[in-house]
Specification:
Length: 194
């Protein structure tokens, strides 16, 4: 894996994995703007994601999501929380990866069931079975798409935030080092994602 100097931090993962909560806190700590692509989608459509799915369908939602992801990815020095399905389109990931460190917040479905409200998430309305099926379908896609993976199973928000802050500092240090040394250390860090 090649070292990339990135100005954005991009959080990907399952619905209910903590992307928005962690992203807001991380942005505050780093004094960076926070962008939630779901909020951009709602603003652009003028209706909730649930209504977009019901009235326009998933295909229309994904098209709008891609436009909003491009808008968010074009910004510099931001923390971006994405929707759970953003990894399903390679064009989304290319846009986010262009200037973003992709962090997979990995939370087991059983943990998500205990802590997240699923009724307002169109693909998860069927409950636990739908969540487990979606996790099985997407977990390898998240792992392939990310630069690093952070387990968010039972950790307090503060603990996850500290891991992200440490990662961000390490990336800043790597970017300042000689390219050969940085690539070697980055390869060691990135192997931890699996």
């Amino acid at each position: 894996m090649m070292l990339r100097v990135c100005t954005n931090i991009v959080l990907v993962g399952m619905p209910g994995s903590g992307k928005s909560s962690v992203g807001k806190r991380l942005a505050r700590r780093l004094r960076r703007p926070f962008i939630d692509t779901d909020d951009l989608i709602v603003a652009a459509a003028g209706k909730s994601i649930e209504r977009i799915f019901a009235e326009d369908g998933e295909a229309a939602f994904r098209e709008l999501e891609t436009r909003c992801v491009r808008e968010a990815a074009a910004r510099k020095g931001v923390v971006i929380a994405t929707g759970g399905g953003v990894v399903l389109r390679e064009e989304n990931m290319q846009a986010l990866r262009a200037d973003g460190l992709i962090v997979f917040l990995d939370r087991a479905p059983e943990r998500i069931l205990k802590t997240a409200e699923l009724s307002d998430r169109p693909l998860l309305r069927a409950g636990g079975k739908a969540l487990f099926a979606l996790y099985r379908q997407r977990k390898d896609i998240y792992r392939e798409a990310c630069d690093c993976r952070i387990l968010n199973n039972g950790r307090r928000l503060k603990q996850v935030l500290l891991v992200l802050l440490k990662l961000q500092r390490r990336m800043a240090c790597l970017a300042a080092q000689r390219p050969e040394a940085a690539r070697s250390r980055w390869n060691k860090i990135s192997r931890r994602k699996r």
